[in-house]
Amino acid sequence: MIDFDQLDKVIHEKARLSIMTLLAGHDDWSFQDLKSELGMSDGNLITHLRILAGAGFVEEERDDSGSRPRTTYKLTKPGRKAFKEYIDVLEAIVRAAKP
Amino acid sequence: MIDFDQLDKVIHEKARLSIMTLLAGHDDWSFQDLKSELGMSDGNLITHLRILAGAGFVEEERDDSGSRPRTTYKLTKPGRKAFKEYIDVLEAIVRAAKP
Asked: Do B98 and A90 touch (CB under 8 A)?
């Protein structure tokens, strides 16, 4: 039996799942790139990034060295682990649904 | 890019996802079997089954022929289609996450 309780609530929310999937794909997304890739409003994206940061899954990095300050986002080690566990449950659901 | 908006809200909720996964596996679950398999309370299970029925994804069937009336639940045709589409998105997420 699949343990649906293992689906982390923080990750399961659709917008956050989309952010986590992008961040898992490659490191160092800028806010603007995330925003245009996901088609989310500034406020919405900020809210969900904060929730993910609050859970310890995402960290932001400020780079003030260039002419413009640039903020990038990436998964933390616990974020990568939690996402992997989440994906394992999804995989079990897909397997159960496609016998 | 994965279309996260395609993740049907009715199905994406954890409890309903667990119900849909069971119903997709085989037909005709009794209320008691669903309840014991999922470890949900009567009220919780009834609420989510009603939402799934309201979306047209699940139908109930009453059988009063035996000594005890028996109610069973199964996916409707649109329910099966919606679940398949949902699972297709999950599969795309799993693929993206496990390159």
From this structure: no
